[in-house]
TrEMBL record:
Highest rank taxon of the organism: Bacteria
Organism: Pseudoduganella guangdongensis
Pfam families according to UniProt: Acetyltransf_7
Keyword line: Transferase
N-acetyltransferase domain mapped to chain residues: 9-161
Alphabetical list of InterPro entries matching this protein: Acyl_CoA_acyltransferase, GNAT_dom
Keyword Transferase: yes
Protein name, entry field: GNAT family N-acetyltransferase
GO terms of molecular function: acyltransferase activity, transferring groups other than amino-acyl groups
Length: 165
């Protein structure tokens, strides 16, 4: 797992006490298009809380050995990175930042670090990104290519350069 991306950005393993922050982070990634139209705020918060718990449960069931880290700036949480280091791939399960920390190069640094790991291990880096997500442009700039569509997600992949043995 990458440990630093810049002087003030660091990562640490997520802890039980980080759940409230991660739920807030999850809610911040839901665009107004993905929100439940017609619900009051309390109902929407309840539904998003249930969606967050379902997502966490699915990740833990499907990727029980994945690393979940909090991205911190000056020791304050600003995002999370969830990565499964499998035998055939590095799978980014989730990479997200609070809105005020986006477009500052943090995500780029994390992606480059994961690509460097993929290159060392000679493994592809893969993830699913929601259709229409602005993150797709960053991923394509980093060399990720769309390999297909799975429901509401583009399946994206970066392959390490072919090495000389």
């Amino acid at each position: 797992m990458p440990s630093k991306t810049s002087r003030s950005i660091e990562m640490r393993p997520a802890e039980a006490g980080d759940v409230a922050f991660m739920q807030q982070l999850y809610s911040s990634t839901r665009s107004t298009d993905a929100r439940m139209g017609g619900c009051d705020n309390a109902t929407e918060n309840l539904l998003q809380g249930l969606q967050f718990k379902a997502q966490q449960s699915w990740f833990q069931t499907k990727y029980p050995n994945a690393d979940l880290a909090l991205i911190t700036e000056h020791e304050r949480p600003v995002g999370r990175l969830y990565v499964d280091y499998g035998p055939d791939e590095l799978r980014i399960l989730d990479i997200c930042l609070l809105p005020e920390h986006r477009n500052r190069g943090i995500g780029l640094g994390l992606l480059r670090s994961l690509q460097a790991q993929g290159e060392r291990l000679r493994l592809p880096v893969r993830l699913n990104v929601m259709l229409g997500s602005p993150a797709q442009r960053l991923l394509q700039r980093c060399g990720f290519e769309i390999r297909g569509v799975d429901g509401i997600y583009n399946v994206m992949e970066w392959m390490p350069p072919a090495g000389i043995d």
